């Protein structure tokens, strides 16, 4: 029973007078209020910072989406131009084969005693590494699709 009484006495802040206890309670209450106020301010600042970060990220996301759309448009234009070039290559190859067959016929007809000098039609598409003109490679640049 003595230990219970000592615990009750020691919890009262070493048995000080009531005025000192009231002053300590008042200081603790003021300290707790100030701590709560600082905590609320920290939370408010964190919320503002997070809101600002969300707005910044949403803006960056819009910019990225716009850039992607521009790149897709440029890709589609390039793909379309590439398809046109492929079709033209097929058409020109067919025309070249037709012209070569005409030359072959002319050679067969002229082989009967008519001597003629035949023009040599070379097909640069068939031998792309043996071009008759200087070849300058195209260099890719980071902004080539931004135009």
TrEMBL record:
Domain BZIP residue range list: 22-70
Keywords, alphabetical: DNA-binding, Nucleus, Transcription, Transcription regulation
Span list, region Disordered: 1-40
Lineage top rank: taxon: Eukaryota
InterPro entries: bZIP, bZIP_plant_GBF1, bZIP_sf
Keyword DNA-binding applies: yes
Main localization, broad class: nucleus
Protein name per UniProt: BZIP domain-containing protein
Species assigned in the record: Lupinus angustifolius
Record bears the keyword Nucleus: yes
Record's subcellular location: Nucleus
Gene Ontology CC terms, in alphabetical order: nucleus
GO terms assigned for molecular function: DNA-binding transcription factor activity; protein heterodimerization activity; transcription cis-regulatory region binding
Pfam families named in the record: bZIP_1 (PF00170)
Matching SMART domains: BRLZ
GO terms of biological process kind: positive regulation of DNA-templated transcription
């Amino acid at each position: 029973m003595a230990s219970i009484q000592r615990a009750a006495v020691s919890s009262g802040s070493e048995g000080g007078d009531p005025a000192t206890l009231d002053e300590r309670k008042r200081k603790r209450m003021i300290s707790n209020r100030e701590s709560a106020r600082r905590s609320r301010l920290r939370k408010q600042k964190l919320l503002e910072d997070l809101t600002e970060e969300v707005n910044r990220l949403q803006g960056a996301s819009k910019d990225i989406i716009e850039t992607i759309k521009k790149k897709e448009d440029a890709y589609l234009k390039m793909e379309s131009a590439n398809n046109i070039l492929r079709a033209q290559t097929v058409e020109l190859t067919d025309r070249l084969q037709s012209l070569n067959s005409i030359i072959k016929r002319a050679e067969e007809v002229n082989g009967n005693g008519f001597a003629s000098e035949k023009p040599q039609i070379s097909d640069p598409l068939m031998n792309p590494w043996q071009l008759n003109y200087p070849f300058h490679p195209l260099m890719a640049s980071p902004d080539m699709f931004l135009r």
